[in-house]
Protein backbone atom coordinates (compact mmCIF):
# COMPACT_ATOMS: atom_id res chain seq x y z
CA UNK A 1 0.00 0.00 0.00
CA UNK A 2 1.29 3.45 -0.90
CA UNK A 3 2.16 5.93 1.88
CA UNK A 4 -0.57 8.48 2.59
CA UNK A 5 1.44 11.33 1.02
CA UNK A 6 1.72 9.41 -2.26
CA UNK A 7 -1.94 8.41 -2.18
CA UNK A 8 -2.87 12.04 -1.61
CA UNK A 9 -1.03 13.20 -4.74
CA UNK A 10 -2.52 10.34 -6.77
CA UNK A 11 -6.06 11.29 -5.78
CA UNK A 12 -5.49 14.99 -6.34
CA UNK A 13 -3.99 14.38 -9.80
CA UNK A 14 -6.90 12.09 -10.67
CA UNK A 15 -9.48 14.68 -9.58
CA UNK A 16 -7.70 17.51 -11.42
CA UNK A 17 -7.60 15.49 -14.65
CA UNK A 18 -11.34 16.19 -15.04
CA UNK A 19 -12.82 19.68 -15.13
CA UNK A 20 -14.77 20.43 -11.96
CA UNK A 21 -17.92 20.92 -14.04
CA UNK A 22 -17.59 17.51 -15.70
CA UNK A 23 -18.62 14.04 -14.50
CA UNK A 24 -16.03 12.10 -12.49
CA UNK A 25 -15.36 8.51 -13.59
CA UNK A 26 -13.60 6.82 -10.66
CA UNK A 27 -11.91 3.51 -11.54
CA UNK A 28 -8.80 1.45 -10.95
CA UNK A 29 -7.60 2.36 -14.44
CA UNK A 30 -8.05 6.09 -13.81
CA UNK A 31 -6.01 5.90 -10.60
CA UNK A 32 -3.33 3.86 -12.32
CA UNK A 33 -3.09 6.50 -15.06
CA UNK A 34 -2.76 9.23 -12.44
CA UNK A 35 0.01 7.30 -10.67
CA UNK A 36 1.83 6.68 -13.97
CA UNK A 37 1.64 10.37 -14.85
CA UNK A 38 3.08 11.33 -11.46
CA UNK A 39 5.79 8.69 -11.85
CA UNK A 40 6.85 10.52 -15.00
CA UNK A 41 7.15 13.81 -13.12
CA UNK A 42 9.03 12.33 -10.18
CA UNK A 43 11.36 10.46 -12.51
CA UNK A 44 12.25 13.84 -14.02
CA UNK A 45 12.77 15.30 -10.55
CA UNK A 46 15.12 12.41 -9.77
CA UNK A 47 17.07 13.09 -12.96
CA UNK A 48 17.27 16.78 -12.07
CA UNK A 49 19.18 15.81 -8.93
CA UNK A 50 21.90 14.14 -11.01
CA UNK A 51 24.16 17.13 -11.69
CA UNK A 52 26.18 17.28 -14.88
CA UNK A 53 28.34 19.81 -16.69
CA UNK A 54 26.50 22.57 -18.51
CA UNK A 55 26.59 22.94 -22.30
CA UNK A 56 23.64 25.34 -22.64
CA UNK A 57 22.84 28.79 -21.36
CA UNK A 58 20.65 28.80 -18.26
CA UNK A 59 18.53 31.54 -19.83
CA UNK A 60 17.05 28.99 -22.23
CA UNK A 61 15.42 26.96 -19.46
CA UNK A 62 14.45 30.14 -17.60
CA UNK A 63 12.66 31.46 -20.70
CA UNK A 64 10.76 28.18 -21.09
CA UNK A 65 9.66 28.28 -17.45
CA UNK A 66 8.50 31.89 -17.79
CA UNK A 67 6.38 31.01 -20.83
CA UNK A 68 4.90 28.03 -19.01
CA UNK A 69 4.09 30.17 -15.96
CA UNK A 70 2.03 32.49 -18.16
CA UNK A 71 0.25 29.65 -19.97
CA UNK A 72 -0.42 27.84 -16.68
CA UNK A 73 -2.03 30.92 -15.14
CA UNK A 74 -4.12 31.46 -18.24
CA UNK A 75 -5.57 27.94 -18.00
CA UNK A 76 -6.36 28.38 -14.32
CA UNK A 77 -7.98 31.77 -14.99
CA UNK A 78 -10.14 30.12 -17.68
CA UNK A 79 -12.80 28.75 -15.30
CA UNK A 80 -10.17 26.75 -13.39
CA UNK A 81 -9.40 24.51 -16.35
CA UNK A 82 -7.29 22.05 -14.37
CA UNK A 83 -7.00 19.39 -17.15
CA UNK A 84 -5.47 21.93 -19.52
CA UNK A 85 -3.24 23.29 -16.74
CA UNK A 86 -1.91 19.76 -16.17
CA UNK A 87 -1.37 19.43 -19.92
CA UNK A 88 0.80 22.56 -19.82
CA UNK A 89 2.93 20.99 -17.07
CA UNK A 90 3.15 17.71 -19.00
CA UNK A 91 4.47 19.68 -21.95
CA UNK A 92 7.03 21.38 -19.70
CA UNK A 93 8.12 17.96 -18.43
CA UNK A 94 8.68 16.76 -22.00
CA UNK A 95 10.69 19.85 -22.91
CA UNK A 96 12.89 19.61 -19.81
CA UNK A 97 13.52 15.91 -20.46
CA UNK A 98 14.86 16.91 -23.88
CA UNK A 99 17.01 19.64 -22.37
CA UNK A 100 18.52 17.16 -19.92
CA UNK A 101 20.04 15.30 -22.85
CA UNK A 102 22.20 18.39 -23.30
CA UNK A 103 23.21 18.37 -19.61
CA UNK A 104 22.02 21.72 -18.18
CA UNK A 105 23.84 23.09 -15.15
CA UNK A 106 23.07 22.22 -11.56
CA UNK A 107 21.70 25.76 -11.12
CA UNK A 108 19.26 25.19 -13.97
CA UNK A 109 18.18 21.89 -12.46
CA UNK A 110 17.45 23.55 -9.11
CA UNK A 111 15.55 26.35 -10.87
CA UNK A 112 13.46 23.82 -12.78
CA UNK A 113 12.59 21.73 -9.73
CA UNK A 114 11.60 24.90 -7.85
CA UNK A 115 9.32 25.86 -10.75
CA UNK A 116 7.49 22.53 -10.62
CA UNK A 117 7.03 22.94 -6.86
CA UNK A 118 5.69 26.45 -7.46
CA UNK A 119 3.18 25.31 -10.09
CA UNK A 120 2.15 22.20 -8.18
CA UNK A 121 1.66 23.99 -4.86
CA UNK A 122 -1.63 25.38 -6.16
CA UNK A 123 -3.09 21.87 -6.07
CA UNK A 124 -0.80 20.06 -3.66
CA UNK A 125 1.26 18.30 -6.34
CA UNK A 126 5.03 17.75 -6.73
CA UNK A 127 5.75 18.71 -3.12
CA UNK A 128 7.38 15.45 -2.04
CA UNK A 129 11.11 14.81 -2.20
CA UNK A 130 12.18 12.08 -4.60
CA UNK A 131 13.15 9.74 -1.76
CA UNK A 132 9.59 10.02 -0.44
CA UNK A 133 8.03 9.00 -3.74
CA UNK A 134 7.42 5.34 -4.53
CA UNK A 135 7.51 4.47 -8.20
CA UNK A 136 5.00 2.07 -9.65
CA UNK A 137 6.51 -1.36 -10.46
CA UNK A 138 4.82 -2.56 -13.63
CA UNK A 139 4.01 -5.97 -12.16
CA UNK A 140 2.59 -4.52 -8.94
CA UNK A 141 0.47 -1.75 -10.43
CA UNK A 142 -2.84 -3.55 -10.09
CA UNK A 143 -2.17 -4.42 -6.45
CA UNK A 144 -1.36 -0.89 -5.43
CA UNK A 145 -4.25 0.68 -7.33
CA UNK A 146 -6.59 -1.65 -5.48
CA UNK A 147 -5.08 -0.50 -2.19
CA UNK A 148 -5.87 3.10 -3.11
CA UNK A 149 -9.42 2.17 -4.11
CA UNK A 150 -9.98 0.60 -0.72
CA UNK A 151 -8.41 3.62 0.94
CA UNK A 152 -11.27 5.74 -0.42
CA UNK A 153 -13.86 3.06 0.36
CA UNK A 154 -14.63 2.04 -3.20
CA UNK A 155 -13.80 -1.62 -2.54
CA UNK A 156 -13.52 -2.94 -6.08
CA UNK A 157 -11.88 -6.18 -4.96
CA UNK A 158 -9.98 -7.65 -2.02
CA UNK A 159 -6.39 -6.38 -2.12
CA UNK A 160 -5.36 -9.09 0.33
CA UNK A 161 -5.90 -11.63 -2.44
CA UNK A 162 -3.14 -10.06 -4.55
CA UNK A 163 0.21 -11.72 -4.05
CA UNK A 164 2.79 -9.56 -2.30
CA UNK A 165 6.08 -9.07 -4.14
CA UNK A 166 9.17 -9.22 -1.91
CA UNK A 167 11.29 -6.11 -2.09
CA UNK A 168 15.05 -6.06 -2.52
CA UNK A 169 17.01 -3.71 -0.31
CA UNK A 170 18.84 -0.78 -1.90
CA UNK A 171 22.15 -2.49 -1.14
CA UNK A 172 21.03 -5.69 -2.89
CA UNK A 173 19.91 -3.70 -5.93
CA UNK A 174 23.20 -1.80 -6.10
CA UNK A 175 25.06 -5.12 -5.93
CA UNK A 176 23.00 -6.49 -8.84
CA UNK A 177 23.59 -3.31 -10.84
CA UNK A 178 27.35 -3.57 -10.25
CA UNK A 179 27.27 -7.23 -11.29
CA UNK A 180 25.39 -6.30 -14.46
CA UNK A 181 27.87 -3.53 -15.36
CA UNK A 182 30.73 -5.95 -14.81
CA UNK A 183 29.06 -8.46 -17.14
CA UNK A 184 28.59 -5.77 -19.79
CA UNK A 185 32.26 -4.83 -19.43
CA UNK A 186 33.17 -8.44 -20.21
CA UNK A 187 30.71 -8.36 -23.15
CA UNK A 188 28.64 -11.05 -21.43
CA UNK A 189 25.43 -9.43 -22.61
CA UNK A 190 23.33 -12.53 -21.98
CA UNK A 191 24.13 -12.39 -18.26
CA UNK A 192 23.61 -8.62 -18.18
CA UNK A 193 20.18 -9.02 -19.77
CA UNK A 194 19.32 -11.83 -17.37
CA UNK A 195 20.12 -9.58 -14.39
CA UNK A 196 18.05 -6.74 -15.88
CA UNK A 197 15.07 -9.07 -16.38
CA UNK A 198 15.47 -10.45 -12.86
CA UNK A 199 15.35 -6.93 -11.43
CA UNK A 200 12.41 -6.00 -13.64
CA UNK A 201 10.49 -9.02 -12.35
CA UNK A 202 10.82 -7.53 -8.87
CA UNK A 203 9.69 -4.08 -9.95
CA UNK A 204 13.15 -2.53 -10.40
CA UNK A 205 13.62 -0.51 -13.59
CA UNK A 206 17.21 -0.15 -14.81
CA UNK A 207 18.12 2.74 -17.12
CA UNK A 208 21.50 2.91 -18.86
CA UNK A 209 23.15 6.33 -19.14
CA UNK A 210 25.19 7.49 -22.16
CA UNK A 211 28.37 7.47 -20.04
CA UNK A 212 28.11 3.70 -19.46
CA UNK A 213 26.75 3.84 -15.92
CA UNK A 214 23.22 2.84 -14.86
CA UNK A 215 20.50 4.22 -12.65
CA UNK A 216 17.53 2.39 -11.15
CA UNK A 217 14.15 3.13 -9.68
CA UNK A 218 11.35 1.15 -8.09
Write a concise synopsis of the structure shown.
59% of the residues lie in helices and 4% in strands.
Helix and strand sequence: HHHHHHHHEE
Class derived from helix and strand content: mainly alpha
Rounded to the nearest angstrom, the distance between the terminal CA atoms is 14 Å
General shape: globular
Number of strands: 2
The average pLDDT is 78
Radius of gyration: 19 Å
Q: In DSSP terms, counting alpha (H) and pi (I) runs of 4 or more, how many helices?
A: 8
What is the share of helical residues? 55-70%
Description:
- The chain is mainly alpha-helical and 218 residues long.
- It has eight helices and two strands, in the order ααααααααββ.
- The chain has helices spanning 4-16, 28-48, 58-77, 82-100, 106-121, 141-151, 170-185, 189-201, and strands at 205-208, 214-217.
- A hairpin with a 5-residue loop joins strand 1 (205-208) and strand 2 (214-217).
- Helix 1 (4-16) packs across helix 2, helix 2 crosses helix 6 (141-151) and helix 7 (170-185) packs antiparallel against helix 8.
- The relative contact order is 0.13.
- Mean pLDDT is 78; it is low at 138-165.
